[in-house]
Design brief:
One of its GO terms (cellular component) is sperm flagellum. The protein is mainly α. The protein contains four helices and three strands. It has helices spanning 2-17, 23-32, 43-54, 106-116, and strands at residues 61-63, 69-71, 76-77. The protein has a three-stranded antiparallel β-sheet with strand order 1-2-3. Helix 2 (23-32) packs across helix 3.
Length: 125
Amino acid sequence: MWATRWLLLAALAATSRAKALGRCQLAQLLQRQGLDGYRGYSLADWLCMAFYESNFDTAAKSINADSSTSFGIFQINNRLWCTDERSPSENLCRVACADLLTSEITDDITCAKKIVRRPQGMDAW
């Protein structure tokens, strides 16, 4: 019985750290964080990018052809934007890549804003 409770508690803890967000839930979060119209990109642009990058999954993690890794709902890359302690990074967002994998996406949004301020804008994705 103790083992069953422990496994249930562990499963609940894991799901609270990351989750797939619904489209409307993500839209509300992005709007509250000022992304609608940010640098000329509509809320629809941000939602579309998040859908194609991660399917709205805050725990998405993918290894790219160049051996770099992308993290979180916006698939932010460890080569330039975050540090994962496994490979060199400029860490321009000053964030640990692991922090981009949680259901709290404020740091993901802050970093995404930095990325689109560069000349490539959303084409960086």
